[in-house]
Write a structure and sequence with these properties.
Blueprint lengths: L5 E7 L16 E2 L2 E2 H11 L4 E6 L3 H11 L4 E4 L6 H7 L10 E6 L7 H9 L4 E7 L8 E5 L2 E6 L6 H4 L3 E10 H9 L14 H8 L4 E5 L11 H21 L3 E2 L5 E2 L5 E2 L4 E2 L3 E3 L4 E2 L4 E2 L3 E3 L2 E3 L4 E2 L3 E3 L3 E3 L4 E4 L1 E8 L4 E4 L2 E7 L4 E2 L4 E3 L9 E3 L4 E2 L4 E3 L2 E3 L4 E2 L4 E2 L8 E2 L11 H13 L4
Parallel strand pairs: 1-4, 1-6, 4-5, 7-11, 12-15, 13-16, 14-17, 15-18, 16-19, 17-20, 18-21, 19-22, 20-23, 21-24, 22-25, 23-25, 24-26, 25-27, 26-28, 27-30, 28-31, 29-32, 30-33, 31-34, 32-35, 34-36
Antiparallel strand pairs: 2-3, 6-10, 7-10, 8-9
The protein binds uridine-diphosphate-N-acetylglucosamine and magnesium ion.
Length: about 450
């Protein structure tokens, strides 16, 4: 436990009416993860002692998503959404006896930087507010300063024309010692234009008691909230741009960064090369020095050092490529380990399989892994050679240094070093092609 334990309360009970969706707003995806996960990641970066998520609309789904990403979260239900002050107060009983600082974040504001929140955590003011200079202050609450202190926050709905002219706005992030926060909140009423309990009212109340208040200022980008499909799309663009910039700074080579789409958890090692037009789904790791060639789609896959994937490859969950493996064009790999230096270069489906080191899989090979009810495994040893267009009817095992003839339908295990031929024998009928064609032409001409 750190010297000054921190608790973070994430407000995620609101409906998000402007999203025009049945799903809770905080579950909408950003980088293919619920936006709430991004806020949880930022919260976890501060290593708080406690994280409390206030849920309301679609409560069970929001709680489940929070717990999936961060099993230690504590869930609090706000059955009626009576305002941000009411939402934080709902977390009071859960944090009863917690003596450290409490920081409030919004589940729909995913871009606040951990460094900004560290500045909030480290503020010695009784109440710290995260503010920003708004290009268009619009609906935001305004910070009314008194020298360095924040005298109060006025919501746009309640503001005078002079107050509306103020451009220093409230992000919504607040921090204060827990006991003080809940004490101030108990004095907040709802006599205002919205009829809501405003969290922002704690600032004026604190000043009235002679307590200290301060604003921490961050760039407006960080306070971007998501309230509508258009804002969600804009936020996705921001997420992608940030991810690309971070990876380039980490030494990843990207030939056309704007055409590469990342997930929230994509890991790419230094010195890896990403060609244009790639989509990364969740759970992908690309190691140092690997190359992902153009027009490939990867999810749940691990690509080791020196491996080359694509162009036009698809790696599905459980694709595990060892060093220097090669997956070429129009190849799909699912739940399969591809051994070091093994090659599957053209037009193949490899599912529920193990391929040993140095094995070559010829064009058009298919692991027939599904019998309509169950999935079965294909095991291929090391340095084997699978002839083009081999159907591997699983469960089946091909031994080390074994070979299958092109066009074989392999239904039985092939021992180490053996050659398997499983196809019809070729028969040549001399002259028959010419005779047959002549006859067909005659038929067409009505002479037949
Ligand atoms: C709030 C601030 C405003 C600030 C703005 C920044 C107040 C009174 N106003 O206004 O000063 O400029 O954010 O975006 O705090 N929520 C709940 N339960 C509730 C109400 C809200 O969980 O009962 C959650 C919402 O889901 C949302 C967040 O709290 O994630 C903020 O609520 P919202 O209604 O968007 O507040 P604003 O009116 O935008
Ligand atoms: Mg809002």
């Amino acid at each position: 436990m750190p010297d000054n334990p921190l608790a973070i309360v994430i407000l995620a009970a609101g409906k998000g009416t402007r999203m025009d969706s049945d799903m809770a707003k905080v579950l909408h995806p950003l980088g293919q993860a619920p936006m709430l996960w991004h806020v949880l990641d930022t919260a976890m970066a501060l290593e708080p002692a406690r994280i409390v998520v206030v849920v309301g609309h679609d409560a069970d789904a929001v709680a489940a998503a929070a717990e999936e990403h961060c099993p230690a979260v504590e869930i609090v239900r706000q059955d009626e959404q009576l305002g941000t002050g009411h939402a934080v107060r709902t977390a009071g009983p859960t944090l009863d006896g917690f003596e450290g600082r409490v920081m409030v974040l919004y589940g729909d504001t995913p871009f606040v930087a951990p460094e900004t929140l560290e500045a909030m955590r480290d503020s010695t003011a009784d109440v710290a507010i995260l503010g920003f200079e708004a290009a268009e202050p619009g609906r935001y609450g305004r910070l009314i300063l008194d020298g360095e202190a924040v005298d109060r926050i006025v919501e746009a709905k309640d503001a005078s024309p002079e107050e509306l002219a103020i451009t220093l706005c409230n992000s919504g992030v607040v921090s204060a010692p827990g006991p003080l926060l809940f004490d101030l909140l108990s004095a907040v009423g709802n006599d205002n234009a919205a009829g809501e309990y405003y969290l922002t009212d704690i600032v004026g109340l604190a000043r009235g008691r002679g307590l200290s208040t301060a604003a921490v200022i961050c760039p407006e980008d960080e306070t971007r909230g998501i309230n509508s499909p258009a804002e969600l799309a804009a936020a996705e663009a921001v997420f992608q741009a940030r991810t690309r910039a971070r990876l380039v700074a980490d030494g990843v080579t990207m030939l056309a960064p704007d055409t590469v789409h990342f997930a929230f958890d994509t890991h790419v090692g230094r010195g890896a090369v990403l060609e244009p037009y790639l989509v990364f789904g969740p759970g992908v790791t690309v190691e140092t020095g690997a190359t992902i060639r153009a027009f490939s789609h990867l999810e749940g896959a691990h690509v080791s050092q020196g491996a080359i994937v694509g162009p036009y490859a698809r790696l599905r969950p459980g694709a595990e490529l060892a060093e220097d493996a090669r997956i070429g064009n129009f190849v799909e790999v699912k739940a399969a380990e591809i051994g070091a230096g093994a090659k599957v270069n053209h037009l193949s489906y490899i599912g529920d399989a193990t391929i040993g080191a140095g094995t070559n899989v010829g064009a058009g090979t298919v692991t027939c892994n599904y019998d309509g009810v169950m999935k079965h495994r294909t095991e291929i040893g090391e340095r084997a050679f699978i002839g083009s267009n081999t159907m591997l009817v699983a469960p089946v095992r091909i031994g080390d240094e074994a070979l299958t003839a092109s066009g074989s339908v392999i239904t039985e295990d092939v021992p180490d070093g053996a050659l398997a031929v499983a196809r019809g024998r070729q028969v040549n009928k001399p002259g028959l092609a010419r005779r047959l064609m002549a006859r067909l032409r005659d038929i067409k001409a009505g002479k037949g």
